[in-house]
Amino acid sequence: QKEVEQDPGPLSVPEGAIVSLNCTYSNSAFQYFMWYRQYSRKGPELLMYTYSSGNKEDGRFTAQVDKSSKYISLFIRDSQPSDSATYLCAMSVSRAAGNKLTFGGGTRVLVKP
Amino acid sequence: GAVVSQHPSRVICKSGTSVKIECRSLDFQATTMFWYRQFPKQSLMLMATSNEGSKATYEQGVEKDKFLINHASLTLSTLTVTSAHPEDSSFYICSAIVPYNEQFFGPGTRLTVL
After folding, report:
1. Is A2 in the B-facing interface, judged by CB distances under 8 Å?
2. What's the pLDDT score for residue A24?
3. pLDDT at A97 over 60
4. I need a labelling partner for B18 at 20 to 30 A (CA). Which of A31, A84, B54, B114 fits?
């Protein structure tokens, strides 16, 4: 079993719909949770960074963390064709220098005009 | 966010040659840089952790003599793929981290070994 599980998709939605992404994990030591967006043949771009449980909102993006269930989510409101990309969740045990990220496999999202 | 660059963005080489990839943090000093490898439609696989002024720490299964990493300054780390073979063809991505901060990724380098 992988430490971080993520549905590979593809997830296809019409423009304007809400995109719902999630990851589950097995290591209860994870405390920092990130969502990255990766366009084809580009490096990942950090979208959201959250610590411990709770919600965090930034524009059209909302990240949720439920540590009791070992489950994190990313919601994209009013989705646009430019949101079509692969979304990777990542998590870490600590924030100290030299800390490693553990990635999910990524979910490919396609927003259709 | 912080900017990380990689050079070259794409390289094609013959089997048996060595290829060097540079990773630079442009507007901050990075004490730690990471090197990842990504195959098509797969997630990032951490290869090694590079700390300025010290030897890199390689993940299990990654050949340190095959993938030479040098972190000579706080803004530059290099990955050299030695005696490259077609199975080394992949997308190589670096990232840089400032202590107690987020990890920022470079744009990646696509290596094709013929």
Report:
1. no
2. 97
3. no
4. B54
Contact (CB<8Å) B49/A100: yes
**In this structure, what DSSP letter does residue B59 have?**
P
Q: Are A71 and A26 in contact (CB under 8 A)?
A: no
Tokens for B64? 């340190």
Mean pLDDT of chain A: 92
Q: Is A98 exposed, middle or buried (0-12, 13-18, 19+ CB in 10 A)?
A: middle
**Nearest Cα residue to B38 out of A103, A83, A27:** A103
Backbone angles phi, psi at B58, to 5 degrees: -95, 145
Residues A96, A33: Cα–Cα separation, whole Å: 14
CA distance B55 to chain A (A): 13
Q: Is 80 exceeded by the pLDDT of residue A1?
A: no
B42-76 per-position pLDDT tens digit:
888 999 999 888 889 999 999 999 999 998 888 99
